[in-house]
Amino acid sequence: MNEPKKRRGVLAGALAGQVLGPGMVVLPGQGNSLAIETDAGVVVIDAGGYLHADAMITTLREHFDAPVHAIVYSHGHHGYNAAVDVWQRHNDHRGDPPPRLVAHRNVVRRYARYRETAGLQQRMASIQFPSRTPIPLDVLATGFTLHDPTETFTDTMTLVEGTRRVELIWVPSEVDDAVALWLPDDGLLCGGAATPGFTIPNIGTPLRTQRLTIRWAESLERLTALDAERLMTEFGPIVEGTDDVRSQLLSMAGALRWLRDEVVGRMNAGMDEAEILADMTYPDEHFGQPWMRPLYGAPEYIVRDLYREENGWWDRNPTTLHPAPPTDVAAAVLSAIENPQVVIERARALAAAGDTQLALHVIDLLALGHGDEPEVVEARAFKAELCLTRAGEIQPFVSKSCYRSSARLLDEGHTSWTHLE
Predict the structure, then answer these.
(1) Confidence of residue 414 (pLDDT cuts 50, 70, 90)
(2) CATH architecture of 324-419
């Protein structure tokens, strides 16, 4: 087997170009995209985005000449299938029939929601995936092209029969439209979004909707029952051997169930979200495995998502029930501080002592202000510095991105994301 290539970015798979066996090669898509030769033609997991499609097709044609029979949407997140039209043109140029576009039925509803909230989706992506040079939202939108599937299924689907059977299984996890692809004749399971491979399950991420922790655990347990001999994860390596596949799937599910039990126990004792976060510890037994590292997701994210599953939006502080307008709050806080410079000095002292997070809490007394008073401007600038420092202190990619995006916003003199263009 070929050696896996190094990932080219946070959303790039580790296996691009690797041959997994006769008639199976990993394409350089968004995540590990697999091309599978079948009696009906080639089945491709995800068409990738416009930055991926040409290289994916080139790699495909280095190995197979058969028509692309079907493109399976591993899930409905932006980018994974933005370039479906490139593949359709490829088939048309070859004189082949259009590929089947197959997805779970919930993708249709997701795409409708994405179209309705297009501006929000672009802004969230800009924050979560900041570039060195800011990309205008209208340019970013070109990578968010949506192609509705031509076929959908509910729970399971036999996509191709014959000498190499291809089955699809609904595995709600990161999203409610996630699909695993199962090749029973090869003993190969492609877990898709349900099995990231290099990081703890991406539940509770700061900018996204709820992922429902136990639902994800149940999907992992469902996949365990297949007794797969190999597991291709979404971004990470191949897991070899039935025992190792089973161990990885069950350890992830077990950690998620452990988190649920721990958070529920603390909620039942009356703790609020902040108290639970401060009280939690994460034992190596569950979180010391390579596939549970907090590199993209984080256990703290999952704690917050679990709390949101059972609680409303109120943080238990009566002040926040019916808040005054942010500009009025900022002005009132500033007026209550006799010497604003003391706040800045205290925040700088905390930062110098290595307490970056506490420094952020203190500097917010001034930095959330909307005026152009010298102390407020200085506080915003220092908060931007603290955000960059904090980005270097924590592991989860999404947190790093949010800190860096926030620093850029503050450096531009803004406190509201409505200024993002």
Answers:
(1) confident
(2) Alpha Horseshoe (1.25)
